Structures are given as structure tokens and as C-alpha cells.
Amino acid sequence: MLVTIIESVDEAIIFKNQLSDENFVIFPLFESDVHPFCTSPVLLLARNINSEDTFVLPHSHSECLPFFDNFDILNTAKCFILDKKYLNSPESSDLDAMMYSSNKNIVLNIHTKPLSWSTHPLYMIIDYLDRDLSQMAELCRNFVKNESFVFLNTITNPTLAELEKNGLKVDREVFMKYFDREDLLCKNDFVFTQYNYLTSTGRPSNRFGGINFSALNKTDGSRESFISRFDGGELYLLDYESYHPRLISKLIDVELPAGSIHEYFGRLYFNKLDLTPDEYEESKKITFRLIYGNITDEYKSIEYFKKIDDMIESMWEQYQNLGYVRSVISGLKLHASSKTKLFNYLIQNYETEMNMIILQKILNVSKTMLSKPILYTYDAILLDVHPDESSYVNSVRDVMETDGFKVKVYKGKNYNDMGHIVM
Known about the structure:
Elements: E1 3-5, H1 9-18, E2 24-29, E3 43-48, E4 54-58, E5 80-81, E6 93-94, H2 95-101, H3 109-112, H4 122-142, H5 147-166, E7 168-169, H6 172-178, E8 190-191, E9 195-196, E10 205-208, E11 211-212, E12 234-240, H7 243-252, H8 261-270, H9 277-292, H10 303-322, E13 325-326, E14 333-334, H11 339-366, E15 372-376, E16 380-385, H12 391-400, E17 407-412, E18 419-421
Parallel strand pairs: 1-4, 2-5, 5-6
Antiparallel strand pairs: 2-3, 3-4, 7-8, 9-10, 10-11, 12-16, 12-17, 13-14, 15-16, 17-18
Helix pairs in contact: 2-5, 5-11, 7-11, 8-9, 10-11, 11-12
């Protein structure tokens, strides 16, 4: 194996001449305690998957000349990249998406024991990651791209990257009061989220620096930290109403009314037209208990739940025969230990893949606007809206309400103090 540290034009030309279509595995090495969108990679390690030669593309390692100011050399390249979303290389393939879509559970040293990449001896870094690079090169040589990989690589990955890149503006004083993490603040008092879709359902987690952005506390005031980046701007939360029940209705081909789902089912549960507030709340509990648990015989007279029960049984039979079921949109193989868990995984994945398509459309709407989506939390999307672009919220709502879905809109000066509005 030949190792070349690129510190001259001639060495860069040698690398560029080898950078043909899908010929390289590339690892960007970021410092683990700094969000990648707050900094640049310390260096890139690039392994030629055919010759197994290794190139080091340095940016800020203590032992190398900072030859690369940026890594625009990859902008049009077709290669295989770990954490592709942090490099501008849209034609490349994301290694995590490859492993995930092919059910390859490969444990990488780069993930399990992050080092101080900027000061750790370079020869030790190369030795430490050699096995990782070799395993990934082997995977790439034998990988056959499938539908689920294409979805993850061209929709999920770039969509989540764009959301992360937008960042969250914070009130520094309030943020420090609740989180006390000044090290997470980037220039102009922004923090950045980090989505990870490598979960059992593909439903992303979202945490960075010990903060779980998917489950920020709703009652302790900490959400006051997150504010608009614009003078006179406001945050808008667009929240799907009864998202899972409506998603399921599409799978089982049962039409639900445009109005309140919980009122509709409550009238069936309690055999009355007008529900009390307590009955409405009980209706919600019953519906979600049935959707996420076993459907008891007393509710199978309702077509919606009878068809769900039939679908659960059919899926479980398929799972027993094949060892998996495929997700609704991308065909990702899903696995679970029980029939109800399998159904829940399918619905969570369906929700996620629908959201990725919707978010991609919202980001396209946002390209000509200052306003932008800044946080995705499963059944809700948080927007940072410029004061001169109030029509933006309606445009986003129109996208989200496609195909009969319903959205509630909330707005406020921060993420904590948000009130429901009618638009």
C-alpha cells in the first residue's frame, strides 16, 4: 500500500487523475466535539478501492502543510464517502446508506473511538483506520445499488444535511442558563443539530453535544433558547394532526373524514354525536392504544381497525416466511421481534420516508426565500420566517397538506412561547 500526503501540485494531480467514477472510499475526519457545519475536516483519507493506495488530503493537521483550503475537488466527483452530508459531493454515494440499506452491521473504529485528529500522529491515524478503509473498499467493490439505497442517498441524506446546515439561532444568555454549553455555540450564536437515520425503523434521532433536539423539554422553559435569526422574524411550528391514523388509512384504503379524527372515532366508541372533553381525550387514548397495540375484538366491527388487524396478521405471516417486510416507499428491509412491533416499525418508516419527500419539496420552495425550515420532529416542522415573507408559511402548509393531511399552525418569538393561529 502506497501512502501519499498531498502537499504539492504534482501530488494533487496524481490524486485527481485517479479520481475516476466510484474509484475511491473517502473518510473526512472532523473533531468530534465540534459540529461539522461549524468547521472543516482536519483531513480526508482517500483509499483507491482498486490499487488500495491511500492519499491524505490535509487541511489543518499539525504534521501537514495545509494544502487544501477547501475540498471543492469533490464537488463533481463520484466516490464513496463516509458522512457524505458534510462534504459537497452530490454525485457521490454515502457509505452509511450503503451499509444500512444492505443490512451490513460493520463497526468502524472511526465511530467507536474518536481521536483528536488534528494532533494525533498521522502515521497512527492511517494505521488505526486502515481496517475501516479496507472493509469499506470491499463493500464498495461488491455493492449492488438498490431502491432503498437510492432513496437514502438522493433524498434522505441531502434533505437532512440541508436541515442541519440551516442551524438554530439561540439567545446566548437563555441557552447558557438551561444548557450551559458555550462550546456548542458557533458564530453568530447558532447551534446545529445532527440527524441519524441509522435506526431500526429509519426514523432519525437528532442529538448533538448531549442535547436531544427531537425531544426538547416542553415544560422547563429551555425552548425559550431558540429564536428567529431575523430582526422582527418569528418561529412557526406546523404540526400534523392525527398523522399516523391518516397515514395508516392510506395503507388500508379506508377514507377518513377531513375533520377531527378523534371526534369521528369517539362517536363510534361512545355511540353518541356530541362528546364531552373527557370523552374526546379518552377517544385519543383508545385510538392510539389500538394502533400501537393489539386490536381487541370489540373494536373489529369498525372497518378501520378490522383492516389494520388484517394487515398486521398478513405482515407477520410474510415476515415468518421471508424474515423481513419491506418499507412502503423505498423497499427497505424491516425486522422486528413481534407482530405489533413490526407494524409500528412499518408506520414509523412510512412516516419518515413521507416526511423526507415533503421536506425536500419544502426546501425547494425555500431556495428563493430567506425563510427556511430549521427543525424536523417526526410530525412537526419548525420554520424560521423572515418578517417580509409571511406567505412562506402558507406555501409550506400547502405542501404538507397534500393528499388530505391536516396541519395546525403555531407561532411565537421563541420555540417555547408559541400560540395556535388560524390561517
